[in-house]
Amino acid sequence: PTGLGNQFATSYKEATDRKYLTNIKPDFEPIAFKIYFNGDGSSGYENYKKLAQFLTKCGKGELLIEYADGITDKFAKVILKSMPKTEVNADGEMFADCQFERQWYWYEDVAESFALKTAASLLSTTFPLSFPFGFAGSVFINKFEISNDFYEDAPIVLSIKGEIKNDIRVAILSEDSGQTVAEVALSRGSGEDTEIIIDADTKKITVTENGETVNGYGLQDPTKQSFLYLPSGKYIITSSMEQDDAGEISIAIKRYLLD
Q1: Interatomic CA distance for residues 147 and 137, integer angstroms
Q2: How far apart are the C-alpha atoms of 251 and 241, rounded to whole Å?
Q3: Which of 15, 95, 106, 176 is within CB 3.0–4.6 Å of 36 for a Cys-Cys bond?
Q4: In angstroms, what CA-CA distances link 247 with 6, 106, 126, 236?
Q5: Which strand (E) or helix (H) includes residue 122?
Q6: Structural contact between residues 64 and 48, judged by C-beta atoms closer than 8 angstroms
């Protein structure tokens, strides 16, 4: 395959004696590779038709492509650009030279995640992030240090479950000044059987109660952000949860990769 690396487009402002860089943005090459439809001796035409039917069901949306280089399993969202159909050649092969347009950077298979809740329930939880476990009992933990080493903002997925009496609020604070960098707020709390998802990756907000899922956009505070993204650097994330809330707010952070 080709197009697995990175490419960038640059813009400059011309001056009398030199030019100045004004913008740099990703401009990925298409990911291109051959798909063989009859490598196992089966019908190439039938297999081609099955793939075409699958892509038809996907519609015009993004596809997920996986690439394992022997060190990291990584994923990227792509759009099908071309899949020309060929006839069986003299060697009995039927294949298509496919091209997919990559929409953004590769990212790791497993997003880092943790939950804001009481320490008593945290003790039985395994975290992919380091966590200060030097405590016992039911000390309430409602803030967490998070970091993003990549130069692009990382989308955050919030999953809110169980009883939280206050209106939902989750904020990212500057580690140095404590000032709010970004914040999402809803005009309601959460019930015992409620699940609220605020997904910056898909840009969707859903509320599930009594087996029914509805759009939650109308719950947003319009003076705050719709979704949370973690900027590059170190920050504190906190919420409006209180000591006696039985619910939890789980945070998953997608980690982008340059390679």
Answers
A1: 27
A2: 14
A3: 95
A4: 42, 33, 18, 20
A5: helix 119-122
A6: no
Per-residue pLDDT band at 111 (split at 50, 70, 90): low
Predicted TM-score of the model (pTM): 0.73
* Rounded mean pLDDT, 163-172: 91
Which of 41-57 are b and which e, b meaning 16 or more Cβ less than 10 Å from the residue's Cβ?
Answer: eeebeebbeeeeeeeee
- Distance CA(129)–CA(114), nearest Å, equals 7
For tokens 């997919």, name the residue: 100
DSSP 13-51: EE-SS-EEEEEEEE-PPPEEEEEESSTTSS-HHHHHHHH
Condensed to tens digits (0 to 9), the pLDDT of residues 25-38 reads 889 999 999 988 88
What phi and psi, each to the nearest 5 degrees, are found at residue 257?
-130, 140
Task: Tell me the torsion sign for CA atoms 168, 116, 204, 156.
Answer: positive
Cα separation, 161 vs 181, whole angstroms: 24
194 residue type, one letter: T
At 256, phi and psi to the nearest 5? -80, 155
Lookup: tokens for 231: 């900027």
For 227, which DSSP code?
S
Token pair of 199, please? 């997904």
Query: Which structure tokens are listed for 184?
Result: 């999402």
Rounded Cα gap, residues 239 and 251, in angstroms: 11
Mean pLDDT of 185-212: 90
